[in-house]
Sequence to fold (653 residues):
Amino acid sequence: MISLNSGQYTYRIRGDIASVEDELTRLYPHSLNHDFAVADFDIEIQQTSLLRTLLRPQVTLNIEGHKPFNPIHPSKLLPSIEWAMNWCVSAYDHTKLLIHCSVAVKNGKAILFPAKSGSGKSTLSAYLGLNGWHLYSDEMAIINLNTGYVEPVFRPASLKNESIEIIKPFVQADEHYMSRTTKGTHKGDIAHVRTMSKDVFDKLEPSKIAAMLFLDFDKNKRFNVYEIDKSIGLAKIITNAFNYSVIGEAAFSILVSIVNQATILEVSYAEMADIKELIGELVI
Amino acid sequence: MTPTGISKTLFLAMLTQKKSITDLEPEELDSLLRATIAAHMHGVLANTVDKTLSLLLPLPLSRHFASIHTFSLAQKNQVVASANLLSAQLSSAGIPVLLLKGAAYILSNKPNAQGRLISDIDILVQREALAMVESTLQKNGWRAKSLNDYDEKYYREWSHELPPYIHSETGVILDIHHNLIPLSSGKTINIAQIEATKVVVGNNLYIPSDAYLILHSAIHLLLNDDTEKGLRDCFDLHSLIQGYLASETLDSLRVIFIEANCETEFSILIHLLNRIFNNEYSEIVLNGVHRLSWHDQVLVNSLYRTICPRTDYLLDNKSALARQHVYMHGHLSKMPFLLFIQHICYKGYRSAVKRLLGETFFKSLSPKE
Fold:
C-alpha cells in the first residue's frame, strides 16, 4: 500500500504495487508514504481472473468500487495509475472548476493550453516545464471558483510515442526525471516526466490566468497567431471543461471573468521554440 | 497492509445518525467515506452533516461532501429538465408521464431525494401505449441502447421494462416500464389502480401515490438478484414509510401489498427494516402479525448480510453464501423454476468464461456489449 500526495489530493494505492513502486518513488519524491489516515481517493490493483493469474495475467484498477478502464497486463500498470489519478479528480471533485488543458506559469501568470488531440499539448508543456516555466498541470487546470486562480499540482507530464525522444534531451537537471517507457498501451508508448523538485513545487502559489492558447500543431505550417473574440473563446473553453455543467452558474461567472482578463489566441506552429518566445511576451 | 475498516454496525449507525460523525477517529472516517461511496450513499451521509461541522472534518471528507452537494443539485436540475422534456414530447401523443423511483422522489421533493444519486429516469406507461411511446421518443432524440440478442429477448419477453433508451444530446438514460414486476414472476400489479391514484407533480407529470411508491421500491429490493444498491433502497423505504405513517396506518399499506400478492414480501421488508433501523419497527414486528417462516427468517438474515457493499473497508461483510442465497431468491421470485434453470445456464456459462478469461472477454467479441 502506498500513500501518495499530489500537493492537491491524497491517494491510497493498494494491491500488488511492486512493479511500479520504484518509478512512483522517483516521479513523486518526498510525496510517498506520507502517512495519512484519511485519503481523498482509493485505488486498488486487482487480479482479474483465476486462470489469468497463471497464464496471461491481467490486472484491473478498482477506483472507489468503479472499474472505468479495461484490464491490462501488469507491466503496463504505471500509465494506468496515472490515468486513474486523473479520473478520480474529474469524477469526484466539483469544488473546483476543472478544464482539460495543460498549464504553464511564469512570473505569477498562467497560460492555459486547452487540449485537442494531436495539438502537441503534452510535448509542449513538458518542454516548457523543463525550460524555465513551472508546469502546474499537464492534464487539467484546477481553478478556484472564488478567485479564478489556477492551482498547482505535483504530477508528472505524460508523453506519447515520438514525443518521448523529442523531450529526452531536455531532461538534464537533478530535479528532472523521466520514467521508463511503457510500450503498447492503448494510447501507444507512454513515459512520464517530472519537471521540478518537491522543494520548488512547495513554493508555488495559485496563479492568475493571463492567456489561453488554442494550439494547432502542423509540421508544414507557418507560425501563425490570431487573437480570437472573447465570446468564441468562452464557448471554446467551456467545451474543454470537465464539470462546467455540474457546477453551473458559478462556473459560468468565473469563466466570464477569466476570459475578460485573458488574451485568447489561436496558434498554428511547427516549432516549440516559437511558442516559447510568444508566451514569454505574454507574461512580462 | 490492508485497510482497517469499520464494522457494519458502526457504518449503519452513522447513516441512521445514531452516532455523531465527530465521535470517529480519522481511520474510521476514512473507512466510512470509502464504504459510503461504494454504497452510492455518500450524498446521503453528506446530507446528515451540516456545513459548519463539515469544515471541521478532515479535508477529504469536507471536500467530498461539498462536491456531492454540488453534484446532487446539478442532478436535480437535470432530472427536472428531462421530466419536462418528456412531458412535452409525450403530451403531443396524449400520453401522461408517470415518473417512478428517483425521478419521482425528486419531482415531489421527498425527504429521501436529498443527496440521493440516480443513474436513470424511470417512467411507467400502459402496455398498449408502448409502441406509441417508442415511436414518439425515437422521433424526438431518444434511441434504444443496443443489446446482445439474449438480453434483448430477456427484456422483450420476460421483463417488465423495455431495453433502456438514451437521449442523444444529454446522455440521460430512460427506463420505460409497463409493469412494476417482471412478467415472468407470475405476479401482476394492478396498473390501472396506480394510474387511478396517481398524484400530479407538474404539467402532464405524475407520480404513484405513496403506497405504490413503497410497493415498487420494495419489489425492486426484494425481487432482485443484485443488492448492489440495496442499502439505498432500504433508506428510501424507511423514509417513505415514515412519511406514509404520518397520515395512514401500516395495515392499509399491507393491504396494497396483499393485493399485489406480496404479503410475504411485506413481512420480510418490515423485519429487514427493523434490523437496519435500530428496532424502530419492533412494536409491529413483536405483535406477531407479521411472523415469518424459518425460511423467510433466513432470507431476512441473508439480505441483512448482503445489503452493504462488498468493500475491504467494511468488516464482517463478506458472506458469499448469503449473497448466493439472495441471488437465487431474487431470480426465483422473478421467473418460474424452468426458466430460471435456462437463465442461469446462460448467465453461468458467461460468468465462468469471464472468471477464466477476464471481465472483458465478451466485450472483445462483440462491440455491441
